[in-house]
Amino acid sequence: MVNVSAPNTARLLAALATAACVGCASSERSDPPQEAAQRWDSAGVTIIENHRPQWAPSAGWSISDSAVLEIADREPSADYSFFRVSTAIRLDDGRIVVANTGTNEIRFFDATGTYLHTVGGTGDGPGEFRQLAWMGRGADGMIAFDFRGSRVSAFGVDGTLRQTRSLAAPGVVLIPRMMSAAEDGGLVIQYYLRSRLGEDSGETKVDLTRDSLVTALFDSTGAETRLLYRPGHILDVRFREILGGRSARVPLAIHYGPSVAGAFADGEVFVGSSDRFQIDVFDTDGVWLRSIRLAADPIPVTPEDVDALIERVEPMLSGANAFARRQLEWLRRLPAAKTMPFFSRLPFLVDDDHNLWVLPYRAENELPFDLDGFSPKHSYPYAHVFDAEGTYLGEVALPDRFRPTAIGTDYVLGVSHDLEDVERIAMYRLSK
User: Which pLDDT tens digit goes with each residue over 7-42?
Assistant: First the structure.
């Protein structure tokens, strides 16, 4: 059962009311704020309003021009060949662990990038995956999520399988891109409520679906214990279709609609809906601790933006099976959001010094239906960085053709790709 105490609910409603009128309050100020960041308390929730970076234009952190470590294709060994890498992490002893979702494998490399061994693989057996979708640090090891199997496997730092548990539950559709592991073996998980996908005999229409996305804490047995976050509303379209011999309503997010991203670190959950630049921080008891905001101008979605999205998707669906072609028809009928999202749907990153890294939204990276999964073409020119208190420090430029997946005190690790879109693991030096 989800536990939400009355005091916490009251604090949540009061802080939401404050958030709703932030734009009005800002428009009434006659003078621009003198401070880069302002803080105040709202019903026990600390609000951090960031107006501009703390770093001066010539200051800030930097990442080395060249990688200090690369793990790349070495023929004839397939162990160094990567396809659809979701995550690469670095263990305390320097070893690199890579979730290669294209082969459903978790591969281990030593601190120099030399291949050690592999666990996982395709299958339904212990430690295997029908669709490896996510991997992260857990309590003294790694936790990996099998999307199609709706189960989580815990591995030790040596790759030994410790536990496999099912997360299947009535009314729940798990979202693989938003999962984080807690120190006690619990998980922070984002999911859809399957009750929103019920049968319907109505015509095609647009619904404003509230509370369709939930972020919650699950304990080490796979049971949900605490509701943490609901984004308020997600706009989607319901199409009446014949699926599996029955009439059903199929929900699809609108073009350039908001998504929810998050992370878990040091007992705190960071989560936010990308329709505004606000990241809320909770503890594992569901107490709302603070809201981190960044002033940013909205970018309107134009008809040309929608046309460009359809053009990117069409080659992927037009020659596929009948259901894929039907998806293309749905996409052509979808409405669009009024403004672009403020940040990526990919998980936030929290480095070893508890700084929060947020990737910007790039339309070419984030296609409907997650059509290309973790494509090697996903890359980001920079990341927004906030310190442990929620103060906006500024932007850190990222290497070309690179997607970060783990950040330490002095390194940035992630997935790089060459001009032929061949994936490789790369680690760069971070200078602060």
Answer: 344 444 444 444 444 444 444 444 544 589 999 999
- The DSSP string of 308-361 is HHHHHHHHHHTTS-HHHHHHHHHHHH--B-SB--SS-SSPPEE-TT--EEEPPP
Mind listing the pLDDT tens digit for each residue in 193-220? 654 444 444 444 445 455 567 788 877 6
pLDDT, greater one: 269 or 323: 269
Indicate the pairing of strand 69-71 with strand 423-431: antiparallel
Instruction: Give the whole-angstrom CA distance, residue 56 versus residue 246.
Output: 60
> How many C-alpha atoms does 290 have within 13 Å on its Cβ side?
14
CA angle (382 as vertex; 376, 387 as ends), nearest 5: 125
Q: Alpha-carbon distance 429 to 421, whole Å?
A: 23
415 pLDDT band, cuts 50/70/90, is very high
> Which tokens belong to 370?
């997650």
**Sign of the alpha-carbon dihedral angle for 334, 338, 339, 343:** negative
Residue closest to 410 by CA, chosen among 108, 69, 100: 69
Q: Which helix (H) or strand (E) holds 12?
A: helix 6-20
- What is the average per-residue pLDDT within 343-368? 90
The residue with tokens 């006659």 is 30
Closest of 281, 190, 210, 217 to residue 251, by C-alpha: 210
The whole-angstrom separation of Cα 63 and Cα 51 is 25
Q: What CA–CA distance (Å, rounded) separates 44 from 8? A: 10
Given a cut of 80, is residue 262 above it in pLDDT?
A: yes
Q: Is residue 76 reached through a cis peptide bond, with omega within 30 degrees of 0 on the bond before it?
A: yes
SS3 state of residue 237: strand
Q: How many CB atoms lie within 10 A of CB 180?
A: 26
User: What is the pTM (predicted TM-score) of this model?
Assistant: 0.85
Q: Are 371 and 355 in contact (CB under 8 A)?
A: no
Q: Give the C-alpha distances (Å, rounded to integers) separating 13 from 8, 55, 96, 229, 329.
A: 9, 34, 43, 12, 40
